[in-house]
Amino acid sequence: MDEIVATAFWTRLDTDGRDACRLMRTGTGWRLAGCATFLHDGRTCILPYRVDCDARWRTISASVDGSVGFEGLGLRIERAGEDWLLNGQIQPKARGCVDLDLGFTPATNLIAMRRLDLPPDVEVQAPAAYYLEFTAELGLIEQTYRRTGETTLAYASPAHSYRAELRVDPIGFVTDYPGLWSGKVVSD
Fold this sequence. Notes:
Elements: E1 3-12, E2 17-25, E3 29-40, E4 43-54, E5 59-68, E6 71-80, E7 83-86, E8 89-90, E9 99-102, H1 109-116, E10 123-125, E11 128-131, E12 138-141, E13 144-149, E14 152-157, E15 162-168, E16 174-177, E17 181-187
Parallel strand pairs: 9-11
Antiparallel strand pairs: 1-2, 1-17, 2-3, 3-4, 4-5, 5-6, 6-7, 7-8, 10-13, 11-12, 13-14, 14-15, 15-16, 16-17
């Protein structure tokens, strides 16, 4: 049986939206399970998601189900060695990545932060397979993380021209993602 470790709740700052996610310890590793709801181009998005990682925080698989407006969305993502598959199709741009970033939720930042377990003032490149929102493909997102304090990390995503100091809770969930998300975490 899965053990719930913590639950995170976020409010989206750049549009009307919410996200809630549970971190669970499973028999073989870790699971993030949540649901993001937000407005995108005037359409309501309701996206339940699940991401499974092994005991060392390497992403194994993920699913996203739900809707974008009145259109259904169902994604199955798997990592097979160096390759990533989206609904059974190899995604060459994501080849070699260990982490998965679902761009519509701050929950998946926890994966890289837990896997890297950064010591103070060490900057690490952490490219991730990136779900290109509302498409049927995964891309590559270049990211860097550097621990600046016990509860802060410098984060950069050059493709999005985004640079900020993220505030995280002791579990690793982002609680302040400047301009994008604000949240809180409840340890269970």
